[in-house]
Design goal:
This is Xylose isomerase-like TIM barrel domain-containing protein. This protein is about 40% helix and about 15% strand. By secondary structure, it is α/β, with parallel strands linked by helices.
């Protein structure tokens, strides 16, 4: 058996998403206590906060719950619509401040920023055109830079923007345009391997080309056969997930080993958080997948 090269700069974790958690409160989701118990049982030591309000928002209580299970927090997550211009800043900052304060209190250093959806992920209703105007691109890039500056000044966190299916930062073209239009001192990227593949991108190529902008990783795979059906029929992201488009590694694409190896070569410490979208799912489904996924990542050296 070939011993994998140790990926000693990659810090592996998982997230509520891998337990089918998309919302702060939903009867189809596992209780937060079970998530924490099972993510620790699966062999992970790092977690994300997930949707704000799913885990306890009192820092002292959350610190206790996390520490009792020998877990640590790597990041919080926010959704934003910066392309809509300065008028959304006040509401955006109110939301971001809540999440950033808890993230900071948990000792984490990153805030994952997801752009708002252009179509509803449940109903498929088209909410906005999928392509931004030049003015909207300017709002998006300047707004993210402002957010990066304010989050760092106020909370000492770095923002990492997450390209995501059914948002305006999705395809290789859009991701590269976003990176080329933003200041690396203020804004970097959370590369989600599954979402990038879902939208036709090559994660290894992106890491090798824009390595200095990769500040964080989400590990995920897509089932290419289901993805082909999704693309052919214009299925929105939510129903695509219900069809199983995001699948357990190593059965999908991209291969995660080469992505992790490319990330290791960057010479910086990076979080690599497993996020297998499974909303909604049976409560007993996530743990066995999480155990197998952790074992697989160890076989890659992570």
């Amino acid at each position: 058996m070939v011993t994998p090269t140790p990926l000693d700069r990659i810090r592996v974790g998982s997230a509520p998403d891998s337990w089918g958690v998309w919302f702060p409160d939903d009867p189809r989701q596992v209780p937060w206590e079970r998530f924490l118990d099972e993510v620790a049982e699966a062999g992970y030591e790092w977690i994300e906060l997930g949707p704000y309000g799913y885990l306890p928002t009192d820092p002292a209580r959350l610190r206790d719950e996390v520490a009792r299970r020998n877990l640590k927090v790597s990041a919080g997550t926010v959704f934003t619509g910066m392309h809509r211009g300065p008028s959304v800043w006040a509401d955006t900052w109110a939301h971001v401040s809540q999440v950033a304060a808890l993230t900071q209190a948990m000792g984490a250093r990153h805030l994952v920023v997801i752009p708002s959806f252009w179509r509803d992920d449940k109903t498929a209703e088209i909410l906005e055109p999928p392509e931004l105007t030049a003015e909207q691109w300017a709002h998006l890039t300047k707004g993210m830079e402002r957010l990066g500056h304010e989050v760092r000044e106020t909370y000492g966190l770095d923002i990492v923007v997450h390209p995501h299916a059914d948002t305006h930062i999705d395809t290789e073209e859009h991701v590269e345009r976003f990176l080329d239009s933003t200041d690396a001192e203020l804004v970097n990227l959370c590369l989600d391997t599954g979402h990038y593949a879902y939208c036709g991108g090559d994660s290894v190529k992106l890491v090798e080309t824009y390595g200095e902008r990769i500040g964080y990783l989400h590990l995920k795979q897509v089932d290419p056969d289901i993805l082909a059906e999704v693309v052919a029929h214009g299925v929105p992201f939510g129903p695509a997930v219900q069809r199983g488009v995001m699948c357990e590694p190593p059965s999908g694409v991209p291969e995660l080993g080469p992505v992790l190896e490319a990330a290791q070569k960057l010479g910086v410490e990076l979080f690599a958080i497993v996020e297998q979208d499974m909303y909604p799912c049976e409560p007993d489904k996530p743990l066995p997948i999480a155990v197998r996924t952790r074992r697989f990542l160890r076989s890659c050296g992570a």
